[in-house]
Amino acid sequence: MRDNSSATRLIRPVVLSRTPSGLWWGLLGVAAFSFTVPFTKIAVAGLSPLFIGSGRAVVAGVLAASALALARQKLPRGVQWARLAVVAAGIVIGFPLLTSFALTTTPASHGAVVIALLPAATATAAVLRGRERPPLAFWLITGVGALAAIAFASMQSGGFGQLHSADLLLLGAVVAAAIGYAEGGLLARELGSWQTVSWALVLASPLMVFLMMLSLAQQPASATPVQWAAFAYLGVVSMFLGFFAWYRGLAVGPMAQVSQVQLIQPVLSICWAGLLLGEALTWTTIIGGVAVILCAGAAVRARLRQPPAQHAVPHSTRSLQPAKD
Question: What is the largest CA-CA distance in the chain?
């Protein structure tokens, strides 16, 4: 009995030490992603949105192919390629291109508020994809969050019911990323987390190279050093290295806690928009951002809440269930 007790004491510090480590990795990933919207806004001032959306994926694709080759990863099999195509369509093609075009005509702080709907949208996509049956509160809160984001966008576009084309692009980007994240979360259980993102980047590379060359033919790339630096950040960090930190945090866990760290991303993005771009933070932006973020957080918590029958399941097992986020 004494041996068993000592073994238990040896294991417990390891479990406890994982929590802050996972959270710190998650915070690092979120911090990296929080610069995406402001830096995209900086880059589109000198580069075409088509070049930014496609070029950043090409840069990340080269890094991803190198990482996969160095790690000697096995090729995906069969239907995994089709599922990778869904991931690529969402997070490699859809989100970068749609946000790049949207931010040519809308402030970065405005875009950050609309994109704040992403955690709730991802949870919804994961529920539908995984055929889960979340409580009614989840659907109600998610609906309120969506209405809050649409109301905010319409108010800043001239009145209720009047959405700017940029808002439609941003909402489309949220839907695309949510589907990509949800499918990627499921596929990561088979291929690995960073491997899934890397294979998606490689799969999308031929199309993105074509789009990049097309954009250069239409408008030769010419930008200031600051704009090129912003573009480099989008390709190296937002599209590649940020995912390493984010998925490392999810892997170390507890995943249910780490996944909710994403809720502070829009707050950071709005702050960076004010500090880096000098955008004024209006009360409408602050109230809209708080409303969307609170609804997103409540929706994620409602989905992660365990039914009473599973209370006896160890925490280490329960923390794996939100992997779809």
Answer: 75
Q: In this predicted structure, what is the pLDDT of residue 262?
A: 77
Residue 75 main-chain phi, psi, to 5 deg = -70, 145
pLDDT band at 257 (very low <50, low <70, confident <90, very high): low
Phi, psi of 235 (to 5 degrees): -75, -45
Give the burial class of 5: count Cβ atoms within 10 A of its Cβ; 0-12 exposed, 13-18 middle, 19 or more buried.
Answer: exposed
Is the model more confident about 52 or about 126? 52
Q: How many CB atoms lie within 10 A of CB 3?
A: 7
Q: What value does the mean pLDDT take over residues 98-108?
A: 91
Structure token digits, residue 145: 């969050």
The first and second tokens of residue 73, run together, are 């990863």
Return the structure tokens found at 151: 């109301």
Q: Is the pLDDT of residue 225 over 90?
A: yes
Q: Encode 23-49: b = buried (16+ Cβ within 10 Å), e = exposed.
A: bbbbbbbbbbbbbbbbbbbbbbebbbb
Q: What is the DSSP string of 218-266?
A: HS-----HHHHHHHHHIIIIIIIIHHHHHHHHHHHS-HHHHHGGGGGHH
Predicted local confidence at residue 251, as pLDDT: 66
Tokens encoding 176: 């695309």
* pLDDT value of position 10: 44
Angle at CA 306, nearest 5°, toward 192 and 184? 25
Take residue 20 and report the two structure tokens written for it: 């802050």
Cα 70 to Cα 73, 80, 198: the distances in Å are: 8, 21, 12
d(CA 31, CA 256): 18
Task: State the amino acid at position 251 in one-letter form.
Answer: A
Angle subtended at Cα 148 by Cα 269 and Cα 172, rounded to the nearest 5 degrees = 65
What pLDDT, in 10s, does the model give residues 272-323? Answer: 888 888 887 777 777 877 877 787 777 767 766 655 444 433 433 333 333 3
Q: CA-based Rg of the chain, rounded to a whole angstrom?
A: 20
pTM of the model: 0.78
